[in-house]
Design a protein that fits this description.
By secondary structure, the protein is an alpha+beta fold. 30% of the residues lie in helices and 13% in strands. The chain folds into 2 domains: 118 residues, no CATH class; 105 residues, no CATH class. The strands form 3 sheets. Strands 1-2-6-3 form a 4-stranded antiparallel sheet, sandwiched between helices. Bound molecules: iron/sulfur cluster (2 copies).
Length: 263
């Protein structure tokens, strides 16, 4: 099996970013210690997650949280690819990351030619829009790949106008203000935060900026079988948490958010 075939078998959209291109933008985190000593290449993989509209009936969580926990899916698929690569290149290191990563994932994906960065800070791919999860394999294997030109979205500003919490502006994306971060906060929320969550109607995350984005208009649905078979669109207070994107935050926060949205 070649590297291309291995990666094709785990992801419908992937590319190579030379490590050199992102080495000055690494994110400080514990996972950084797992980087190979002499990293050369970042294999960036997309995992699309958009389902058929019929799967979103009575949805009260962000679309990304309707499917089974993407960390588990991305890591399992990337580890499978890394294992195959380790057999072909026994002298090299292949380290898998997803979300908890020292790699600036969107930037690396753009340099790998996978899409453009939106004003909402997300990667927007041509086929799947921004409804993709990202993960990567960092290796000390030098893979021939020229960095693609860094692209940004068409800048239509529709996400800026639609964002209820003013998290997106011309000067950038303020993660702290985003409903994704607000719905993850512990403790008592401010009246303003509760109002924003109630109006959005999501007890976990928010999709408004993605749903208004014209570059998402014809986004293709996922073909990933783990996602196709796992939809839970409405989260209730007695819901199962294991294998869900919100499991790590615990039942207390989810229950608080459900109460706020149903007040
Ligand atoms: S997810 Fe919602 S709150 Fe966050 S930036 Fe997008 S529209 Fe704004
Ligand atoms: S809505 Fe417009 S400005 Fe916002 S990410 Fe999409 S294309 Fe870019």
């Amino acid at each position: 099996m070649t590297l291309d075939k291995i990666m094709d078998s785990i992801s419908p959209l992937w590319g190579i970013c030379p490590f050199e291109t992102i080495k000055d933008n690494l994110i400080e985190c514990r996972a950084k210690s797992r980087l190979p000593e002499n990293p050369e290449s970042v294999i960036v993989a997309c995992f699309p997650y958009l389902l058929d509209e019929s799967e979103y009936h009575d949805r009260n969580v962000s679309k990304y949280a309707v499917v089974t926990d993407y960390h588990e899916v991305a890591v399992a698929r990337l580890e499978k690819a890394a294992d195959m690569l380790r057999k072909i290149y026994p002298e090299n290191i292949f380290s898998v990351f997803a979300d908890n990563s020292p790699i600036p994932e969107v930037r690396a994906a753009c340099y790998a030619g996978l899409g453009a960065r939106g004003m909402n800070s997300l990667l927007i791919t041509k086929k799947y829009g921004s409804y993709v999860f990202l993960g990567e394999i960092v290796t000390d294997l030098k893979i021939n790949a020229n960095p693609t030109e860094f692209k940004t979205c068409i800048g239509c500003r529709q996400c800026i106008c639609a964002c209820p919490s003013k998290a997106i502006s011309e000067s950038g994306f303020n993660e702290k203000n985003c409903l994704s971060a607000i719905t993850q906060k512990k403790g008592e929320l401010s009246d303003e935060e509760k109002k924003l969550m109630k109006e959005c109607g999501c007890v976990w995350g928010c999709d408004i900026c993605q749903d208004v984005c014209p570059m998402n208009k014809n986004a293709a649905k996922t073909e990933i079988k783990e996602f196709l078979s796992s939809a839970v669109s409405q989260v209730l207070s007695d819901c199962d948490l294991p294998h869900r994107a919100y499991e790590w935050r615990g039942r207390k926060v989810i229950e608080r958010n459900i109460n706020i949205c149903s007040e």
